[in-house]
């Protein structure tokens, strides 16, 4: 008498070791429908006034310092040409002690090398200026 432990014929059922995801998908769809139905109700319960935002153009104050740097590296304090950064430093040192301290606005030509603008920024930092900004043209709306 011999006993057969494993059947080599395909008569017996094969054990399936895969996870059945159909009930999981059913539950997820039900939850999705519940959230879609209840979310508008939750949003309408609390009446709040959201803040509105308006863009305001920066208006140049008369006491702001305007420095122009052209593409050749020449510096201008308002309309006066400055010979070097030492002369700029003396002007900025006088402005740095004023209360409130004026802002320094740098207008650089788009073809100006960064080296020239960097010298102006470094000189303003050495003089003790707190606020340095760059003036650019707004993009065309057309």
Automatic annotation (TrEMBL):
Keywords: Cell membrane, Membrane, Protein transport, Transmembrane, Transmembrane helix, Transport
GO molecular function: transmembrane transporter activity
A GO CC annotation given for this chain: plasma membrane
Entry membrane topology: Single-pass membrane protein; Single-pass type II membrane protein
Coiled coil: none
Transmembrane helix listed as a keyword: yes
Example GO BP: protein transport
Keyword Ribonucleoprotein applies: no
Location of the protein in the cell: Cell membrane
Principal location class: membrane
InterPro entries the record matches: ExbD
Pfam family, one: ExbD
Family of the protein in this entry: Belongs to the ExbD/TolR family.
PANTHER family: EXBD MEMBRANE COMPONENT OF PMF-DRIVEN MACROMOLECULE IMPORT SYSTEM (PTHR30558), TOL-PAL SYSTEM PROTEIN TOLR (PTHR30558:SF7)
Name of the protein described by the UniProt record: Biopolymer transporter ExbD
Protein species of origin: Massilia glaciei
């Amino acid at each position: 008498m011999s006993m057969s432990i494993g059947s080599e014929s395909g008569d017996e059922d094969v054990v399936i070791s895969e996870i059945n995801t159909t009930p999981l998908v059913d539950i997820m769809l039900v939850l999705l429908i519940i959230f879609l139905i209840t979310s508008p109700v939750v949003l309408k319960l609390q009446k709040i006034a959201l803040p509105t935002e308006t863009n305001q153009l920066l208006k140049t104050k008369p006491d702001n310092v305007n420095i122009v740097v052209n593409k050749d590296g020449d510096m201008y304090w308002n309309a006066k040409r400055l010979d070097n950064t030492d002369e700029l430093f003396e002007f900025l040192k006088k402005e740095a002690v004023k209360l409130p301290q004026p802002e320094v606005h740098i207008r650089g030509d788009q073809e100006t090398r960064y080296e020239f603008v960097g010298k102006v920024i470094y000189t303003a930092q050495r003089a003790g200026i707190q606020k340095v900004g760059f003036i650019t043209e707004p993009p065309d709306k057309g």
